[in-house]
Write a structure and sequence with these properties.
The complex is a heterodimer of chains A (about 210) and B (about 170). Chain A is built from five helices and eight strands. With about 210 residues, chain A is of the alpha+beta class. In chain A, a hairpin with an 8-residue loop joins strand 1 (about 1-5) and strand 2 (about 15-20). Classes of the chains: A alpha+beta (about 210), B mainly alpha (about 170).
């Protein structure tokens, strides 16, 4: 567990939080349980305001609790940010069987991030005027994934498949897109080269 | 040539300026969700897929409803048996336009005891279109009315349609 800081809406100073890198399946399900309630509230509000479905958050319907028995999390590293008695964001990553696709490092090992979610109260949901409570959570978790890659000797290489509405974020932080991946429901595949990952964690500034 | 390795201890989590910049940028982004695990678990449904065509939707909805009623199962029980989301089942039975993912179709095919490939074709998830199946879907959608119990005509329509589904496509 590592002490970190996270910016909070409407407050100048960042708030102290914990970065965990050894979550258990129980921790994940506990987080999901509280997030599910909040997702239902957001869904109800979107329905009440007759917001068309394409304006809804893309992961609003995801029900991980139902899939708990199917999830194979062996060999996965789970990062989480804990603050004010609840999980604020989660990231899961693995190092096999994925390898780099970006030249000139094709075939070399990397950290593959297959799950990043922030708690629903940390979403910006414009149609219902909801603003995130804690900020920079995804960036901090991604920094942890880059750190894991450096620690493993992978030079910061990280790969992931972003949901369509998240493309802007991953392009903006300097990941290279290698286009739609037919094996992953045509989600765009993004990869951090070692150089870009190290730029992201140390010097990144807004594009 | 490999980049010079940076020790992992070099990664700082207390850079307040970096956090401020990231917070500002995240604020401008709609989402940062990642979908690899959701795809693998069958949770993510591709937004680029097309909703199924209306007659096929109608036929599929009635096929499910009638079969479920023949089996005397509630919607909840049938969704459980097929291992699909109840919400998806309800939307299918009401012929609502929405995007079906291949996993749901495969689970449904098993629960309905019809070939997966044929149901995929009906749902518009295959490239080739079978004209016989399309005609059968139109007949079935037209003849099957949502009555409380299955009439003889509806039973016959259901049997005909399931037969058509079970047959090999032309040239297949």
């Amino acid at each position: 567990v590592r002490k970190i800081w996270v910016p909070r809406r409407g407050v100048d100073q960042a708030v102290e939080a914990e970065l965990h890198d050894d979550l258990s399946v129980e921790d994940l399900l506990l987080a999901e349980r509280s997030w599910t309630v909040e997702r239902a509230n957001i869904m109800a509000e979107l329905r009440r305001r007759s917001v068309p479905r394409d304006g809804w958050p893309e992961s609003l319907h995801w029900n991980w609790l139902k899939k708990a028995g199917d999830l194979r999390l062996l060999g996965t590293t789970q990062f989480g940010i804990f603050c004010e008695d609840r999980w604020q964001a989660l990231l899961m990553s693995k190092t096999v069987p994925y390898t780099a696709r970006l030249a000139p490092d094709e075939g070399k090992p990397l950290v593959y991030v297959d799950f990043v979610e922030v708690a629903p109260w940390n979403w910006n949901v414009a149609p219902i005027d909801q603003h995130q409570e804690f900020k920079a959570l995804g960036s901090t978790l991604l920094k942890a994934a880059v750190q894991q890659s450096l620690k493993e000797g992978f030079y910061g290489r990280v790969g992931l498949h972003a949901l369509p509405k998240a493309d802007m974020f991953y392009r903006g932080i300097g990941m290279t897109t290698l286009g739609a991946d037919a094996k992953k429901q045509n989600l765009n595949y993004f990869e951090f080269s070692g150089e870009n990952a190290q730029h992201f964690v140390n010097k990144w500034s807004s594009p | 040539m490999e980049q010079p390795m940076i020790e992992y201890t070099d990664v700082r989590f207390d850079d307040v300026e970096w956090l401020r910049r990231m917070a500002e940028f995240e604020d401008r982004c709609e989402s940062l969700s990642v979908g690899g695990l959701a795809v693998d678990a069958g949770i993510y449904r591709a937004a680029c897929a097309q909703p199924i065509e209306s007659i096929a939707r109608d036929a599929l909805g009635k096929l499910i409803t009638f079969t479920r009623r023949q089996l005397r199962l509630t919607a909840e029980k049938f969704a459980e048996k097929a291992d699909i989301e109840l919400e998806d089942l309800v939307r299918l039975e009401h012929a609502e336009p929405f995007v079906l993912d291949p996993r749901t179709v495969a689970q449904l095919a098993n629960a309905l005891s019809v070939p997966v490939a044929r149901l995929m074709s009906l749902a518009g998830l295959t490239k080739t279109v079978d004209p016989n199946l399309q005609r059968a879907a139109v007949r079935f959608a037209a003849n099957a009315q949502p009555l409380q119990g299955l009439s003889k005509e509806e039973q016959a329509a259901l049997i005909d349609f399931v037969k058509e589904l079970a047959e090999r496509p032309e040239g297949g």
